[in-house]
Structures are given as C-alpha cells and as structure tokens.
C-alpha cells in the first residue's frame, strides 16, 4: 500500500505512560504528501520541524496540549490549512503565522 496517499493521521496518547508520548515529529511524516489532517494532541512535542510546510495538502493541524513554544515559519507554506488547534499551550508564540498568506478559518 502506498503511504503517500494517506489522508488522515492521528498520533496521540491515551495511555498514562510517558514512554508512549511523541517528543519530536519523525522526519518520515514528510512522505505523507496527501495528508489532510494531522492530529498530534496530548504529546510532549517541544518543536515542530520546518518541513511541516511540505505537507501542502494539510487542512487540519491539531497540536493542542503539547509543550510547544514557537511554530516554524514553514507553517506559512500550508496554503490549504483551514484549522489550527493550539489549545492548552499558554507559552506558544504564534508570531511565525502569516495569516494574510494562509486561509486559516479557525485558530
């Protein structure tokens, strides 16, 4: 099966065990060019790599309840992004987001 055709992916932890949390986004996520939704909530992500901008089909990006401080400038290449969930991250700077370039309907 061709993984590049996958449209939805959920990577979140419902187990109360730190060993099951994602601490970083694996580079292999870059292969999922047709991904429309990426749900990464309730992990321990401290950063999102700039290559997230290569997922140009992404419409929904759910990052809620992680340990993020900043978003990468690559997020501005997500021209189809309509929904960005950043709940539960009080220290997150969203200064990298250029909403004039993006079509985000809801943050």
Written account of the structure:
With 107 residues, this protein is mostly loops. The protein has strands at 8-10, 37-39, 60-62, 83-85.
What are the defining features of this structure?
little secondary structure, single chain
Question: What's the quick description here?
Answer:
With 107 residues, the chain is largely without helices or strands.
Overall average residue pLDDT: 84
Low-confidence stretches: none
Per DSSP, the total helix count is 0
- The backbone outline, from C-alpha atoms, is globular
SS-based class: little secondary structure
**N- to C-terminal separation?**
34 Å
Q: Give the neighbour order of strands across the main sheet.
A: 1-2-3-4
Characterize the biggest β-sheet. Answer: 4 strands, parallel
Q: What is the gyration radius calculated from CA atoms?
A: 13 Å
Write down how many β-strands occur, each being a DSSP E stretch of 2 or more residues: 4
Helix-strand string = EEEE
Percent strand equals 5-15%
Helix percent reads under 10%
